[in-house]
Amino acid sequence: MRNRFSLKEKSPSRNSDMKLFPVFRWLGIALLLTTLLAANTQYAKARPTFVVTLVNEGDDANPGNGICATATGACTLRAAIQESNANPGTDLITFNLPGGGIHVISITSNPLPIITDSVTIDGTSQPNCAIPCIVLSGAVVGGINNGLTVNTSGSTIKGFIITSWGNAGIAIVGDANSIQSNDIGFWPGNPALLPNGGGIVILGSHNLIGGGPGQRNVISGNSIGIGIATGCCAASSNTIQGNFIGTNILGSGALGNHGQGIFLSSLANNSVILNNVVSGNLGWGIELAGATNTLIRGNKIGANAAGTGALGNRLGGIAIDSDANTNTVGGTANGQPNNISYNHGVGILVVGASTVNNRIQHNSIFANTSLGIDLGTAGVTPNDLGDPDAGPNQTQNFPVLTSATGSTFVITGRLNSMPAHAYTVEFFSSPAATCDPSGYGEGRKFLGSKLVTTNALGNVSFSFTGSIVFGAGEVITATATDASGNTSEFSLCRIAN
Ligand SMILES: [Ca+2]
Ligand SMILES: [Ca+2]
Ligand SMILES: [Ca+2]
Ligand SMILES: [Ca+2]
User: Fold this and answer.
1) Most buried residue among 47, 256, 380, 421 by CB atoms closer than 10 A?
2) CA of 81 relative to ligand 1 center, distance in Å
3) Burial tier of 71 (Cβ tally within 10 Å: 0-12, 13-18, 19+)
4) Ligand 3 centre distance from Cα of residue 298 (Å)
5) Is 466 helix (H, G, I), strand (E, B) or coil?
6) At 291, phi and psi to the nearest 5?
7) How far is the CA of 21 from the centre of ligand 1 (A)?
8) Ligand nearest 378 Cα, by number?
9) DSSP state of 280
10) How far is the CA of 357 from the centre of ligand 2 (A)?
11) Å from CA of 421 to ligand 4 middle
């Protein structure tokens, strides 16, 4: 339709030009032909949209005939999925349920069909909807079922409230699917949690949970928020971006998942956890239980979405354990550091004999009740001479600061670690009187870093001149990171003079 319309509109204005410029005339005709051909191709590929008009259940009477209809002629979500599965290629399922307010699709008999063929199921299509307004509830069917199981690639699920499923709200078995704009584990405005076992469980690769600001999922109140590779299946290169995990829909209050906000097993690799708010959970905000090559960047972990107040995770901010290695928390570019604050417990825990090469850089870590970074045994793990000890992050020795001068922004200190090795020393400031009771600090504001190399005895002294202002009384701290990415605990606090 759009192409025909544009053809009619453009023809009159081009007539005069055609007389003067035959080349343009032929070019114009060629363009029109191309447009028409494209329109025909589009038409040939056009696929039926299945419009769900009934919240009740009911099987499709004739899957594969291109029509979503039960025996009584209605299109239910169950029938639409059956028809989409039977109709090879990507279909679109939209909604036009009668009435306003919240529409509850309560599954009563069997779980919905597994999605086995690419589809977009768009809850945002429902008219008169304060998105999301369509509930997929497992409260009646009970059992250990998933709300939706995506066993295909290239599908999109968006705009639902998904509650009360014994297993996952959404389980993704396939690759390259997108899950966006859903509220999972609660009804907005309803104080009662209606948890799923897991909000979203990912067992495939290259899937996207969330995305830009309009694509945020709010995943709260479940046993765990998001699990990657939990139970089976190597899962690679999945992205969790821009979601609220453990908070209300505004990101202003806690609505914690009962366990971890995000949990990655040892079968998860190359995951990207970007720009989420992971706060208010009763377990860890994020646990990397053996996961490798994870990038954790730009998140608020323990703070509210505005970054102005406390919504601490109950066990701590991030746990890196079970031989998880080669993970990165933060980064050197704008937007990559995380805000890890207000957690009950440590900011970042690294434990396990072979849990190594976990780089922690440029983050803002503050107001956690225990250490900002804790390697191994709880509490400050003392430096060992020459740093031959192994263990989590090789139990990397931390620097010792000997002076910090507010008027010149000069920080001096020394590091003893492995002989003739290069280390990156990062410097941080925190407001006055915020040093941990242990005397060791956290690091609220990243001031800069300096690359140093130890001598044959493992010693190096350094003097760093920053460009970021700090004043007398502020708390100055530092970390050391070796070339493999083993980051230390924070140093003893040095109060700037
Ligand atoms: Ca049919
Ligand atoms: Ca420790
Ligand atoms: Ca060591
Ligand atoms: Ca050590």
Assistant:
1) 256
2) 10
3) exposed
4) 29
5) coil
6) -70, 150
7) 53
8) 2
9) S
10) 16
11) 14
Between the CA of 69 and the centroid of ligand 1 the distance, in Å, is: 5
Cβ contact 132:123 at 8 Å: yes
Residue 129, CB-side half-sphere exposure with 13 Å CA sphere: 22
Give strand pairing partners of 205: none
Taking the centre of ligand 3 as the mean of its atom positions, its distance from the CA of residue 390, in whole angstroms, is: 5
> Residue 231 is encoded by which pair of tokens?
């139970």
Residue 452 CA, ligand 3 centroid: distance in Å? 17
- Please name which ligand lies nearest the alpha carbon of 489: 2
What are the pLDDT digits (tens) for 6-43? Answer: 322 333 333 333 332 233 333 333 333 333 333 333 44
Cα(490) to centroid(ligand 2), Å: 10
For the domain made up of 395-495, the CATH class stated in words is mainly beta
Task: Output the six-digit token pair for 326.
Answer: 């080669």
> For 35-87, how does the pLDDT look when each residue is reduced to its tens digit (9 = 90+)?
333 333 344 446 789 999 999 999 999 999 999 999 999 999 999 999 999 99
Distance 382 CA to ligand 2 centre (A): 8
Instruction: Report the separation in Å between the CA atom of 87 and the middle of ligand 1, taken as the mean of its atom positions.
Output: 9
DSSP assignment of 148-210: EEE-SSS-EEES-EEE--SSEEEEE-SSS-EEES-EESB-TT--SB---SEEEEE-SSS-EEE
* Ligand whose nearest atom lies closest to the CA of 351: 2
Distance between CA atoms of residues 477 and 97, nearest Å = 58
DSSP count for the chain of H helices, then E strands: 3, 39
From residue 254, alpha-carbon distances to 163, 215, 251, 278 in Å are 18, 20, 8, 10
Mean pLDDT of 129-135: 94
* CA 133 to chain centroid: 23
Q: What is the DSSP letter of 446?
A: E
Q: What element of type H or E holds 475? A: strand 475-482
Domains of the chain by residue range: 2-39, 47-180, 395-495
Give 389 Cα–ligand 4 centroid separation in angstroms: 5
For Cα atoms 280, 284, 289, give the angle at the middle one, nearest 5 degrees.
Answer: 150
- Report, in angstroms and rounded to the nearest whole number, the Rg of the chain calculated over CA atoms: 28
In one-letter notation, the amino acid at residue 228 is: I
Tell me how far the alpha carbon of residue 448 lies from the centroid of ligand 2, in angstroms.
24
Ligand in nearest proximity to the CA of 80: 1
